[in-house]
Design brief:
The protein is an all-alpha fold. The protein contains 8 helices and no strands. The chain has a single domain, classed as Globin-like.
């Protein structure tokens, strides 16, 4: 496969993820990309370094850039221990990105899209690593 066709393939895959987030959260695609970034960076920062890297391995190449942008591995994992703390971090990320979206809604949508596209084993592992109450976020309907 040529590098150009690989690039086109990752653009298509990334576009699919973003469109699914946009549809599920009833927002535009630009907002969906920012929602992905806000949720995934909060999740990344909540994971141990190895686990954050393992999750990144299943992301489309273009979306990995948003996931890794601004990451300071020595700060991981963050001290947020409750789903409320996590949602506060997502909301802070959204505000910093100048978007006024509801953190809980976009978090549920992003996590459901993530669960659709990464391995079940990875999702199960993430669920075991996070506090039990995070399970409610994974169960948030995406539509």
């Amino acid at each position: 496969m040529s590098s150009l066709s690989e690039f086109n393939k990752t653009v298509q895959i990334s576009d699919t993820w973003i469109k699914e987030i946009a549809t599920g959260a009833d927002i535009g695609e630009r907002q969906a990309l920012q929602a992905f970034r806000a949720v995934m960076t909060a999740l990344r920062d909540r994971l141990r370094i190895d686990d954050a890297i393992n999750l990144a391995g299943q992301l489309p190449i273009l979306l990995k850039g948003y996931y890794y942008d601004g990451w300071v591995p020595s700060d991981n994992p963050s001290r947020e221990r409750t789903s409320e703390d996590f949602l506060d971090k997502v909301q802070e990320n959204l505000v910093n990105l100048r978007h006024d979206m509801e953190a809980e809604k976009v978090t549920g949508v992003v996590l459901n899209v993530l669960a659709k596209h990464v391995s079940e084993g990875t999702i199960d592992s993430l669920k075991r690593m996070l506090p039990e109450e995070f399970g409610e976020l994974w169960a948030t309907p995406s539509a």
